Amino acid sequence: MLRxxxxxxxxxxxxxISSQAHTLMANHxxxxxxxxxxxxxxNSQLVTExxxxxxxxxxxxxxxxxxxxxxxxxxxxxxAVMHWSGASGIDPRIVITTLITNEPALAQNIALDRISKLxxxxxxxxxxxxxxxxxxxxxxxxxxxxxxxxxxxxSALNTPSDWQAWKAxxxxxxxxxxxxxxxxxSLRTQVAPPTGFMQWPWRQGYAWVPNGPHAHSGSGYPxxxxxxxxxxxxxxxxxxxxxxxxxxxxxxxxxxxxxxxHDNGWATNYYHLDGIQVNNNQWVSKNTKIGxxxxxxxxxxxxxxxxxxxxxxxSILKDGxxxxxxxxxxxxxxxxxxxxxxxxxxxxxxLTDTQTGDKTCMWRRISNP
Length: 369
What we know:
Layout: H1 11-18, E1 22-23, H2 34-38, H3 49-52, H4 63-70, H5 78-88, H6 92-102, H7 114-135, H8 145-156, H9 163-174, E2 207-210, E3 225-229, E4 241-243, E5 248-254, E6 257-261, E7 266-271, E8 273-274, E9 283-284, E10 289-293, H10 297-300, E11 306-307, E12 312-318, E13 321-322, E14 329-330, E15 333-336, E16 350-353, E17 359-360, E18 366-367
Antiparallel strand pairs: 1-11, 2-3, 2-18, 3-12, 4-10, 5-6, 5-9, 6-7, 7-12, 8-10, 12-13, 14-15, 15-16, 16-17
Helix pairs in contact: 5-7, 6-7, 6-9, 7-8
């Protein structure tokens, strides 16, 4: 079992692990130019970013009720839909509609055999990954930002001309739950959570080891996520309690993933969990135990993905959008994110103790006072 009691002497090992610790999704595609949308008569405001982003507290979806009414043969993959929607940040209604538009045969009520179920599971993951990759390509507001969400959606379709079929499916199934054209109330600007709002996602009084900030998908931007573990064991090692980093309402996304959302729009995702002990819509206070990070690989990756060992994948979101950890205060430590995912170079990424002003590098034990 790998343990790091003297982290300063284990930098090479730590970097090797951290650089590979987590890969949720890998699907790098490019948006189609606006001209390809205009050529088939698509309104540039077909969808907004609010339509695409997953905000389970504001726009809940009873996935089992929906599938029971419209896609009953999908019931065996209901957890996968919610899991990958949470991990990708894409609303499950968007994922389902896009997948059905691209593969109309999936709407036929035919029982899934083992092979067709495995294919559908992969299709769900890849559709969510594609939409997420496209959505997060653009990091800064521009004059074209109003068109970006529509470009994202159309770029995820087989051809731009499929947009009419997509819209028809969505309106038939979801227009009463989340009508298209939802507008985000807050501007997309980098604002850190309020001081004192968040702590580290483990019990107060303990010290764990974080690695470098990285994207929710494991690569790219924004650097919204960080992996933490008590001592970074190998699979089968001892693991420890995960706690809510702030007050809020719980959304259980799968057996190994949940989100906590506060009414102020800030939320946190917790992935690779085991023994989740909170329920949907339950209010939890900061430092409430929500489960443990999983010791077994099959539990930690309950719907797939990859990981080198037991840890918690922790992400922050604002209004449903994964948001950079830059300047976020977790307990008394403020985050400097670095240049790219898993950047562990202490010249570029570090934690600042807001009480003393001291700078601490990643892969050091960090207390949660």
